[in-house]
C-alpha cells in the first residue's frame, strides 16, 4: 500500500490519545478546524467513517478503534526513536553564550582550532546580554562580567579573565601621546566611552584629576563598536587587557597608561551541570582547551 496519509494518521492518533479534536489541536499547535480537515481526509482515504459525531464528542466507531489499536504502539516507537536521535544530536552540540567582547576577541578566534580537534561537535555561539538571566537548560557554557563570582542554579563558576582595564589607543595616536603629560594628553586626544562616561570619570579620579561632569567623546553601546573606533585611531578607550591581548601583542593597540580601573571585576565562565557523561565531558574539554589556548598569550 503506497501513498499512506501519514500526516492524517498522526493527527488521528493525537485525537485518540487526547480524547477530543480540541485537545488534539492544542497539542499539535494547530486549529481545531485543521484537525477536523485531516480526519475527514483520512476518512475519505479509507472510504468510511472513523468517528460517530452525533454526541458532544466524536466517538470511535469499531473500524476507528481497530485503526487506533494498530497505530498506538508504532507511533510510540516513532516518537521514542525521534527523541533518541534528538538527544544524541544535543549531546554532540555545544551551546556557548558570551558577552560581545569575549565572543569577538576570545571565543570566535579560538573556535577553528577546537573544531579541528573535535570535528564531530557542532558549536553554536549566542550573545549573553549583560544583566539578563541565562537559561542553562539550553546553554552549556556562558561567559559573563561581574564584580563577584556569580552563583547560578544549574551551573558552576570558574574564573576566566581579569576585567582590569587601561587606556589604549592606535599606534599612530600613541606616538602623538608620547612624552606628554598622560592625563591631559589623553583628554586632549579624545575619549571613547563604553556605554557611559562613568569609567573615564573613575580613571581620572584615581589620578587626582577632576575632569568635569561631562566628559566629551562618543558613547558606544557595544564593546565591539568601541574597539572598532579605537582601532581606527578615533581616540583613547578603556579596555580590559586580558580581552584585547591579541590586539596589543600584534601592535594594533598600545596602552597609554598603566593606571587601571575595574581591578576588582572579572570575567567568569559558567559551566552547565550536566548529568550526562558525554555532554559533561564535552563541556569540560572545551573549557580546558580554551584555557590552554588563551593562557600562553596572557603569559607572554
List keywords for this structure.
single chain, 300 residues, alpha/beta, Arc Repressor Mutant, subunit A, D-Maltodextrin-Binding Protein, domain 2, 3 domains, five-stranded mixed sheet, 12 strands, 48% helix
Structural summary, described in words:
- The structure is a single chain.
- The longest helix is centred in the N-terminal third of the chain and has 30 residues, at 62-91.
- The chain has eleven helices and twelve strands.
- The model has no long low-confidence stretch (mean pLDDT 85).
- It is α/β, with parallel strands linked by helices and 300 residues long.
- It has three domains: 6-89, Arc Repressor Mutant, subunit A (Orthogonal Bundle); 92-162 and 265-299, Periplasmic binding protein-like II (D-Maltodextrin-Binding Protein, domain 2); 165-255, Periplasmic binding protein-like II (D-Maltodextrin-Binding Protein, domain 2, 3-Layer(aba) Sandwich), CATH 3.40.190.
Secondary-structure blueprint of this entry?
Layout: H1 6-18, H2 21-28, H3 32-46, E1 51-52, E2 59-60, H4 62-91, E3 93-98, H5 100-117, E4 122-127, E5 141-146, E6 155-162, E7 165-169, H6 171-177, H7 182-189, E8 191-194, H8 198-206, E9 219-220, H9 223-231, E10 236-240, H10 245-249, E11 254-255, E12 266-272, H11 277-299
Parallel strand pairs: 3-4, 3-5, 8-9, 8-10
Antiparallel strand pairs: 1-2, 5-12, 6-12, 7-10, 7-11
Helix pairs in contact: 1-2, 1-3, 1-4, 2-3, 5-11
Amino acid at each position: 500500500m503506497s501513498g499512506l496519509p501519514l500526516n492524517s494518521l498522526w493527527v488521528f492518533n493525537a485525537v485518540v490519545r487526547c480524547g477530543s479534536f480540541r485537545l488534539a489541536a492544542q497539542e499539535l499547535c494547530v486549529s481545531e478546524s485543521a484537525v477536523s480537515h485531516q480526519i475527514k481526509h483520512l476518512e475519505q482515504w479509507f472510504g468510511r467513517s472513523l468517528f460517530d459525531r452525533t454526541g458532544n464528542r466524536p466517538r470511535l466507531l469499531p473500524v476507528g478503534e481497530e485503526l487506533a489499536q494498530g497505530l498506538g504502539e508504532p507511533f510510540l516507537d516513532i516518537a521514542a526513536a525521534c527523541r533518541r536521535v534528538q538527544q544524541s544530536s544535543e549531546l554532540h552540540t555545544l551551546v556557548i553564550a558570551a558577552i560581545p567582547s569575549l565572543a569577538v576577541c576570545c571565543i570566535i578566534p579560538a573556535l577553528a582550532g577546537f573544531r579541528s580537534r573535535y570535528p564531530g561537535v557542532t558549536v553554536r555561539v549566542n550573545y549573553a546580554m549583560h544583566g539578563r538571566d541565562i537559561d542553562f537548560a539550553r546553554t552549556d557554557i556562558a561567559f559573563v562580567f561581574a564584580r563577584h563570582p556569580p552563583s547560578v542554579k544549574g551551573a558552576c563558576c570558574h574564573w576566566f579573565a581579569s576585567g582590569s582595564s587601561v587606556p589604549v589607543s592606535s599606534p599612530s595616536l600613541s606616538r602623538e601621546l608620547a612624552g606628554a603629560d598622560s592625563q591631559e594628553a589623553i583628554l586632549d586626544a579624545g575619549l571613547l566611552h563604553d556605554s557611559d562616561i562613568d569609567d573615564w570619570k573613575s580613571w581620572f579620579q584615581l589620578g587626582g584629576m577632576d575632569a568635569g561632569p561631562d566628559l566629551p567623546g562618543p558613547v558606544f553601546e557595544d564593546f565591539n563598536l568601541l574597539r572598532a573606533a579605537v582601532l581606527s585611531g578615533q581616540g583613547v578607550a578603556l579596555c580590559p587587557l586580558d580581552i584585547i591581548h591579541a590586539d596589543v601583542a600584534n601592535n594594533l593597540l598600545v596602552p597609554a597608561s598603566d593606571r587601571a580601573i575595574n581591578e576588582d571585576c572579572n570575567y567568569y565562565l559558567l559551566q552547565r551541570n550536566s548529568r550526562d557523561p558525554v555532554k559533561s565531558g564535552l563541556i569540560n574539554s572545551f573549557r580546558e582547551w580554551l584555557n590552554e589556548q588563551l593562557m600562553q598569550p596572557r603569559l607572554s
